[in-house]
Amino acid sequence: MGSDGDIAQGLVRIEGYLLWNAEVEGARRQAVAFAEQLPWLTTAQREEVEQVYTAERTAASRAMLVRISDRAASLREEYTARYLQLRRRCVAATVMAVGAAGGTCTAIEYLTR
Q1: Are the C-beta atoms of 21 and 58 separated by less than 8 Å?
Q2: For 80-95, what is the HEC assignment?
């Protein structure tokens, strides 16, 4: 049996595969619809137009997915850095508050003797 991480990664890959296949199928459907608007094409020309259209559309989709993936990675790095900075600030503020409270308690105890 694989670990939960392996299973999750496998499910993500399957989802990606299915989504990409749906994108390619959508491109094929649009290619057919486009070629149908050109009734003067021969069968061979129609097939070539469909192939070129599908290739162009899938290339554009792939480029868009790469840009989105790169941006997501960039945002992940940026937000991780911001989170770590915020966490350091919160820890520092907590330490200072605990120190101030402890110092206040010590001063009150000292003064009440």
Answers
A1: no
A2: HHHHHHHHHHHHHHHH
Helix (H/G/I), strand (E/B), else coil: 72: helix
Tell me the pTM.
0.67
> Token digits for 101?
């409270």
Specify whether the CB–CB gap between 38 and 49 falls below 8 A.
yes
Place of tokens 């605990």: 98
The domain total for the chain is 1
Burial profile 85-106: b = 16 or more Cβ within 10 angstroms, e = fewer: eeeeeeeeeeeeeeeeeeeeee
At residue 1, the pLDDT reads 54
- Segment 42-97, tens digit of pLDDT: 999 999 999 999 999 999 999 999 999 999 999 999 999 999 999 999 999 999 99
Are the CB atoms for 50 and 32 separated by under 8 Å? yes
**Residue 97 lies in domain:** 4-111
